[in-house]
Design a protein that fits this description.
With 60 residues, this protein is mainly β. It has one domain (7-51). The protein has strands spanning 8-13, 19-24, 30-32, 45-47. A hairpin with a 5-residue loop joins strand 1 (8-13) and strand 2. The structure holds zinc ion. Zinc ion binds at residues 13, 15-16, 18, 38, 40, 42. Zinc ion (ZN) binds at residues 13, 15-16, 18, 38, 40, 42.
Amino acid sequence: MAFDSKTRAAGTCTQCGSVFAVRRSDGGAVEPIGVRRCSCGGSSFDVLESEPADPCAASD
Ligand SMILES: [Zn+2]
């Protein structure tokens, strides 16, 4: 499980709203993929698409 593509999501810069591919770290932090920060200098991102971490966990 070196690089799980399921952790990828679309995210936006919280400062300018630019859209990036982001991933969630184990600690829950949102990190942009391929870049360190936004071109505006922002380094905080919000996730646009949230996927269930584990579909099997939602046993109803
Ligand atoms: Zn930005």
